[in-house]
Design goal:
Blueprint (H helix, E strand, L loop, with lengths): L5 E4 L2 E5 L2 E5 L2 H9 L3 E4 L6 H8 L4 E4 L23 H17 L3 E4 L1 H9 L4 E2 L15 E4 L1 E2 L3 H6 L5 E4 L4 E2 L6 E6 L5 E6 L5 E4 L10 H15 L2
Parallel strand pairs: 1-4, 1-5, 5-6, 6-14
Antiparallel strand pairs: 2-3, 7-11, 8-10, 9-12, 12-13, 13-14
């Protein structure tokens, strides 16, 4: 029997006094397991070399949701509504992302992970989408359709207009190098991106791990694990 692909999953960092804890929604774990992968909870990395040495032992990576990125990364001041990632997590996530891309590992980047992917490749974010004209509800699990262009994402989901959930107040603005926009919300926000330079790198702004009853959304994790088998 062939070994199941090992899929790394990054975590939140939560402070409790002088202590720092890792926190991960179990839905990510279950989604990877149901897709036939072995979930591997990744530790925080201090350097790019640490991240690369660890990721060389993995077959694919999920970058999860979370708080907001420090806008210094694209040269803007912090918006009053932004709640920033723990700086150690941000350092770790960007090190892991850059190592994943350098190793050409299959990557599924979800919500904050999608935004990190964009910024890591030189893009920027809308720091508070409700400042934009015509933008409607995108938080608290609001459901809406997205329009998906011809892409890996559309092939995986099997629909040009799937229904998704929303738990975000930021979104991709300037698109990073080598990324293509694959999905848009009805009010024009970027909801999906893919790398044109890598074998399998897919970013979605919604949370497919929270839609376990939707077979279309489960396919994203199955496609990641299938790509990891071929790594």
């Amino acid at each position: 029997m062939k070994r199941k692909p090992a899929i790394g999953i990054n975590t939140k960092l939560v402070s409790d006094g002088d202590d720092l804890y890792l926190k991960l929604d179990r839905n990510y774990i279950r989604a990877v397991e149901r897709a036939g992968g072995v979930p591997v909870v990744m530790p925080p990395f201090r350097t790019g070399s640490d991240a690369r040495a660890y990721l060389e032992r993995l077959d694919g990576v999920v970058f999860t949701g979370g708080p907001d990125l420090n806008p210094k990364r694209w040269g803007e001041p912090k918006h009053p509504k932004a709640e920033l990632l723990h700086p150690d997590r941000e350092t770790s996530d960007f090190a892991a992302l850059k190592a994943s891309l350098a190793l050409d590992l299959p990557v599924l980047a979800i919500c904050c992970g999608c935004q990190q992917l964009n910024v890591a490749l030189g893009g920027s974010l809308h720091q508070h989408v409700y400042d934009l004209p015509g933008v409607k509800a995108h938080s608290d699990g609001t459901s809406h359709e997205v329009a998906v262009d011809a892409s890996k994402t559309r092939d995986i989901l099997g629909s040009p207009r799937p229904s998704v959930n929303s738990y975000h107040h930021q979104a991709c603005n300037k698109i990073g190098r080598g990324l293509a926009v694959t999905a848009l919300s009805p009010d024009g926000l970027v909801e999906g991106v893919e790398s044109l330079r890598h074998r399998w790198v897919v970013g979605v702004q919604w949370h497919p791990e929270r839609m376990a009853d939707d077979r279309r959304q489960r396919r994203l994790f199955h496609a990641l694990v299938d790509a990891a088998r071929r790594a």
